Amino acid sequence: MNQWVMKPSLENHKKPPWLCMKWPTTEASAAAGCRWEEPLPIRALKNLSFFFITQMQRGLSRLQSGAAGRPHNQRSNSEKSGTGLLSPREQGEAEQRALALALSLKKPATVLEFYSPKCSLCRSLLPTILKVESQNSEWLSIVMADVENKLWLPEVLLYDINYVPCFVLLDSSGTAVAKTATPFSRLHVLTGLSYIIESKRPVLTGACEANAENL
User: Fold this and answer.
1) Where does the UniProt annotation place the signal sequence (predicted)?
2) Does this model's pTM top 0.85?
3) How is 38-91 classified by DSSP, letter by letter?
4) CB neighbourhood size of 87 (10 A)
């Protein structure tokens, strides 16, 4: 007795092509039975590229979050010098170099601000301090000093720094002549800072002559 066996058509079991030359659209894939997949080397390169891009993005995010959390003196001094994150010793040495440079200019006034990285009031004063320094840069320099950095311990003891922020006014020879009092509020600190800065503001020659003529 002969039995008829239905053999599957070979047309429905064609091997998928190794390289799909059609665009990876649904219509093209369904019509030709061609599933879009990149060759293995290309997929490997794409995975490696995605990995490196992800790592770079994470690194930039850490740097940005670290910069946002740094005290304002670290941002200002390190950004001016073009450096990135510094160790406590490197940061202290950079601040001391900034002070030495400011004193070497022999300006009438140099203000040394003692701050703490934990002091929110110190950070909030940054825009005002930068503005004051830029507007009076011809005769005034402002330098930051971290009271928690051991490199500043001699100055902390010398100027009797028991609170932050504390602004110490130095004359052209580097001698301390005044400092702000205990900070009770932001306004109190700014008032004290304005007072010690104005005490060293140079008097214009023209203004003196005009005042003398009016006498």
Assistant:
1) none
2) no
3) --HHHHHHHHHHHHHHHHHHHHHHHHHHHHHHS-HHHHHHHHHHT-----HHHH
4) 8
Distance (Å) of CA 192 to CA 82, 131, 143? 32, 16, 17
Cβ-based neighbours of 33, under 8 Å, separated by 6 or more:
14, 16
Task: Please tell me the predicted confidence (pLDDT) of residue 159.
Answer: 97
Q: How confident is the model at residue 86 (pLDDT cuts 50, 70, 90)?
A: confident
The per-residue pLDDT for range 14-70, each reduced to its tens digit, is 555 544 444 444 444 444 555 555 555 555 545 555 554 555 555 544 444 444 444
- Please report how many Cα atoms fall inside a 13 Å half-sphere around the Cα of residue 105, on the Cβ side: 16
Pairwise CA distance, residues 72 & 150, whole Å: 19
Q: Is the peptide bond before 16 cis (omega within 30 degrees of 0)?
A: no
The pLDDT score that the predictor gives to residue 11 is 52
Domain definitions of the chain by residue range: 86-203
- The string of pLDDT tens digits covering residues 119-166 is 999 999 999 999 999 999 999 999 999 999 999 999 999 999 999 999
- CATH dotted code for 86-203: 3.40.30.10
**In this structure, how many other beta carbons lie within 10 angstroms of the beta carbon of residue 85?**
13
Tokens 């922020």 correspond to 165
Residue in the structure block whose two tokens are 């059609």:
22
Residue written as tokens 């004063």? Answer: 125
